[in-house]
Design brief:
253 residues, alpha/beta, Rossmann fold, 7-stranded parallel β-sheet, 8 helices, 7 strands
């Protein structure tokens, strides 16, 4: 599907991961030049390879940049490098996030702090630093939320669920605050995303989700990436402050 995004410049955080790389790839296939932010230095080589592959597409440039959402200094340097290369920022995709599982009485405080720092405060840092540039381009923001923001997870996820609930609320508030500047802010709330490691480590969880979901399958990373591309495009120009669930019908059953 062509969302008429060619020529736009996008920044995707957490681009080295399963979902981030899918988002960057789908945007690039739509003709979007992409800055791939990676937080862990260990992810740099893989992200560089992804950038090289995407740069082989027609009309597209892709660069990999170390941008740790836990560090404002790191983000300032990465955003400056992005702007020096591309000249403008049209699309911000806040995808960086972490997931941990623990009963709450056994959850170390540092785990709570890490989840909140990356999943919530990381988005705040990115938006605070990016909005001056998005105002110039009348750009758009797509945050990655979760269906866990609206219903309990599978046990041991209360802290993660709380972080994604904050993302949903923050998305709506940003949309209201920046609508006068022509900036749209939306979010995607994925269901359980398919991955080889997930199937290996949690086959019972996978089976539960597949049995309950109306479409009887997990969500593919490309499914979410397509929704991100739609929300980043003018095809969704009447939408802001929306949290779009993409869960293969898990929530409706």
């Amino acid at each position: 599907m062509d969302f008429e995004l060619r020529g736009k410049k996008a920044l995707v955080t957490g681009a080295s991961g399963n979902l981030g790389s899918a988002i960057a790839t789908v945007l690039a296939m739509q003709g979007v030049s992409v800055g791939l932010f990676y937080g862990s230095r260990n992810s740099g080589e893989a992200t560089q390879r992804l950038a090289q592959r995407l740069s082989c597409l027609d009309f597209v440039e892709a660069i990999a940049l170390h941008g740790d959402v836990r560090s404002e200094e790191s983000l300032e340097e990465a955003i400056a490098a992005f702007l020096a290369h591309f000249g403008q920022l049209d699309i911000l995709v806040n995808n960086a996030g972490i997931f941990t599982s623990s009963s709450q009485e056994n959850l170390p405080e540092e785990d709570w702090d890490a989840v909140m720092d990356i999943n919530v405060k990381g988005i705040w840092r990115m938006c605070r630093l990016s909005f001056p540039h998005l105002i110039q381009s009348r750009g758009t923001v797509v945050n990655i939320c979760s269906i866990n923001a609206f219903r309990p997870g599978f046990g041991g996820t209360a802290h993660y669920d709380a972080s994604k609930g904050a993302v949903a609320a923050y998305t709506r508030s940003l949309a209201a605050e920046y609508a006068p500047y022509g900036i749209r802010v939306n979010a995607v709330a994925p269901g359980l995303i398919d991955a080889v490691r997930l199937r290996d480590d949690a086959p019972d969880l996978v089976g539960h989700y597949e049995n309950r979901a109306a479409l009887k399958r997990l969500v593919a990373p490309e499914d979410i990436a397509q929704v991100v591309a739609f929300l980043a495009s003018d095809a969704s120009r009447a939408m802001t402050g929306e949290i779009v669930a993409a869960d293969c019908g898990y929530g409706m059953m």
